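Supplementary notes for students who missed Thursday's class. We covered one full example, reproduced here. Read the sequence, then the structure, then the short commentary at the end.
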Amino acid sequence: MSLKTIHTLTEEAISLLKSLIATPSFSSEEENTAKLIEAWFDNNNIPFKRENNNIWAFNKHFAEGKPTLLLNSHHDTVKPNQAYTLDPFEAIEKEGKLFGLGSNDAGGCLVSLMAAFTYFYEAENLPYNIVMVASAEEESSGPNGLNSVLKHLPELDCAIVGEPTEMQLAIAEKGLLVLDVTVTGTPGHAAHPNN
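Structure (token representation):
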């Protein structure tokens, strides 16, 4: 297990999330958040690989023949809409919550999975392998996202994908539709009820 405590990893993950919020990372423009993620792995002495703005790492005692678990979330965001009421690039803490662009979709998920991966990175005799992928271009279904990295990974037996679903299992969405229309109403995310 990690030499760091869960408490320390939690504090470091929150600090990373604040840095991610403060760093613009629109889909296909994630260069600077990728550098922050690389720094996390460097600071925890975890070797990683990078292609485009995707970063991935394998647990230290990765062993052929064991099932492989993928931990994945993304570090790109959409552009803030005009109805955004706070500074989207300032990590604001209010009432025990952290606000800012990408905090919920999917920075919180990403840093939580990275902290869990780091905690188990050095564990010996795990019954499974762990692969952590911090992926890019998820919001735009871009060609240089997770799909472009899969060819570098072993066969995956299971995946935990961080997205804001309020801990409800969700069926994956795929595709992007762009319409040149004017719409009135409340901005929202596809994973949330249509208000």
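Commentary. The chain has one domain: 6-161. The chain has a mean pLDDT of 90. If anything here is unclear, bring it to office hours.
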